[in-house]
Amino acid sequence: MDVRAEVVAIIERVRNEGDAALKAMSRHVVLEDVPVPEEEVKAAYDTVDPALVKMLIAASERIERFHKLQRPRDLWLETMEPGVVLGVRTTPLHRVGIYVPGGRAAYPSTALMCAIPARVAGVREICACSPPPVKPLTLVALDIAGVTEIYNAGGAQAVAAMALGTESVRPVQKIVGPGNVYVTMAKMALREQVEIDFPAGPSEVAIIADHTADPGIIAADILAQAEHDPDAACLLITTDKALAENVGREVAAMTAGAPRREIIEKSLNNSGYVVVRDIDEAITVSDRVAPEHLSIQTADSLSLVTRVENAGAIFVGRYSAVAGGDYGVGTNHVLPTAGYARLTSGLDVNHFCKTASVEMIDRQGLEVFGDIVETIAEAEGLFAHAESVRIRRRKQ
Questions:
Q1: Is 292 annotated in the active site?
Q2: Which is catalytic among the residues 67, 228, 293, 333?
Q3: Which of 28, 202, 224, 304 could cross-link to 231 by cystine, CB 3.0-4.6 Å?
Q4: Catalytic: which of 149, 204, 227, 292?
Q5: Do 286 and 390 belong to one domain?
Q6: Is residue 12 domain-shared with residue 121, that is, in the same domain?
Q7: Range of the domain at 159
């Protein structure tokens, strides 16, 4: 199967047919309207347990509180030397799109994780796409997160709609959010039209553990990742072979009674363990993998954090469940996968901002660096550049 060829064909169909393409490619429902009406969003609250709504609100507050810590200063200026003041002006993007998966289950947490950092950054227009029919739980989460435009669109065609625009969906500046291989491929293929966060595919976890770790807790963490998706991957990196064997037995026992057993068993085919000589080698292996989630469960877990270079998110100690980052702690769970943690960071407020440098120079300041500019500009053969500074230095 040539996924890229399929995705390119989908993109071109959306480019040429707009809303008609989104309706025609809707697999699970006959789609009459691409936008989700406001009345449907309001009605969704009647179908969701009020206790669950309360927990979503609590989670959204924690996510907002953490992401406010990341908010950059609107303007900072520093006097570098007499007459030279330099700074940075930070502004939010105007319009962004978020993708919320909806194939196997509802993912309200992803709706919160994508939309809240954008709102904290100051983005004025946040739209969302999710496979139709958009699940009530997703609608409620998007409403709590402050999204006012929700569209019945999934897969590569949803990404194309947000990037290119249709009759119903106005194009955005940036698309964020995880998805399957088609969603990820579409994001990559459309980077000339729209910016993206990063490739975010099937979930993965690596666990660094020594003889002090609890096999049951590690097994539980493995199943928590494995139940995400048949393509999810889990890796135990340990200095203790006996621990690996005990974890294997715990995983087998827990899997036998797991509600999502079929998905877990397929995911475990992508999983395994590595026995290393010492903790130094464990960190080397982990950095080479650059996992989306890294759990450290060793005698002195905290001391290892500053030695890790490549990870989307780091969970320190046996009580720091990766699931905490997925839902309730406040950090973001939209993270780079497939080794991209070597290159990029997880979703945060800065993904929704752009910066411009600011320069304020007076007559005295111009003299400070004037010779530098003139000399280098003339060496490059850009004589007008040099003259643009020289003429100013001649003026009194």
A1: yes
A2: 293
A3: 202
A4: 292
A5: no
A6: yes
A7: 3-197+349-353
